[in-house]
Amino acid sequence: MNFTKSLIAWYLQNKRDLPWRHTTNPYHIWLSEIILQQTRVAQGMPYYFAFTAAFPTVFDLANASEQQVLKLWQGLGYYSRARNLHKTAQIVAFELGGKFPENYCDLLKLKGVGEYTAAAIASFSFNEAVPVVDGNVFRVLSRYFDIETDIANASAKKEFAALAFELMPKENPAIFNQAMMEFGALQCVPKSPDCPVCPLNGGCLALKYKKVDRLPVKSKKAKVRNRYFNYLIFSDDDDQTILQKRTAKGIWHNLYEFPLIETDQEVDDAFISEQIQNKHFVSNDIVSLSELRHDVSIHKLTHQHLYIKFWQVKVAGNVAGGVDQQTALGYPFPIVIYNFIEKEWK
């Protein structure tokens, strides 16, 4: 059977109606691709609409403050994407006259634009014959052609990209790339794909050799690190609290949070009380200390699990540099803190 023709025929009949498929505007396609990195379409769609409404052009995004961008991004995670999005918008707007590079190699030079995103923009906006390779493409090709290469290996992407390029109709690379991604997302899914109705089942070697559940091959991920975050919700006589910006590199860079005590295990109120005194978070006298939640909130990131507790710390008088609740709501927070605020402050 003809893999490419069957794949494209399936796509034309089954593709989802997604807004970025109705344009070749590189700004909109770039936005959608950055948003959809590490994010499902259903989750990313509202953010795409929010960004295109708030920032209709790359100039609008470039002229926004980083805090505005982070606030709009709140909840999507992997916040380096938002910071890179903002920096790249500024480069495109102020250094490139508002025009995105029109080829794969030059697109790769933009901050936050990797091989996959550059290939997507190059093919969808400029019809360049360059294949996209993501988890969906790895899965479809490894199963159909029975490829046992470990996709965690650095060399795997080149191997799969070469095969995809060979299969791609050079006169219409965009539709092939879209079809590959969509087929992996809807039909050739990671677990329990519906192989009996698959239009490619006649030539699928993984199905023939009963290896569907074993492909693609991927070596195990690095060990997950456990971290224990104890957030201090200071409140004074005027119901003001303290916020701080995470300026160190790592998770949630440039987002806001409450004063933090990080530990290597769960701790009790005696330990927290001692730490508050030792670290001099406030000069005020502590009136009371209590857990705001007795159940630990577990926030799972790619390579780390955060065990989060919130502690209410009532102090006498007024805290220096305090922020009232209404003002605090305008700051960009990690979603786990924002959800806490939404629940506790309303």
Polypeptide structure, described:
The chain has 346 residues and is an alpha+beta fold. The protein is 42% helix and 13% strand. A hairpin with a 3-residue loop joins β7 and β8. It is elongated, with a radius of gyration of 24 Å. The model has no long low-confidence stretch (mean pLDDT 93).
What does the secondary structure layout of this molecule look like, with pairings?
Layout: H1 3-14, H2 26-35, H3 41-54, H4 58-63, H5 66-73, H6 80-94, H7 104-107, H8 115-126, H9 135-144, H10 156-167, H11 173-186, H12 205-208, E1 225-235, E2 240-241, E3 244-245, E4 256-257, E5 260-263, H13 269-279, E6 286-291, E7 297-300, E8 304-315, E9 323-324, H14 325-328, H15 335-344
Parallel strand pairs: 1-8
Antiparallel strand pairs: 1-5, 2-9, 3-4, 6-8, 7-8
- Poorly predicted regions are none
Separation of termini? 60 Å
Binned strand content: 5-15%
The gross shape turns out to be: elongated
Secondary structure tally: strands: 9
The string of secondary-structure elements, in order, is HHHHHHHHHHHHEEEEEHEEEEHH
- Coarse structural class: alpha+beta
State the share of residues found in helices, binned by percent.
40-55%
User: Overall pLDDT, averaged?
Assistant: 93
Major β-sheet profile: 5 strands, mixed
- Give the helix tally: 15
Rg (CA only): 24 Å
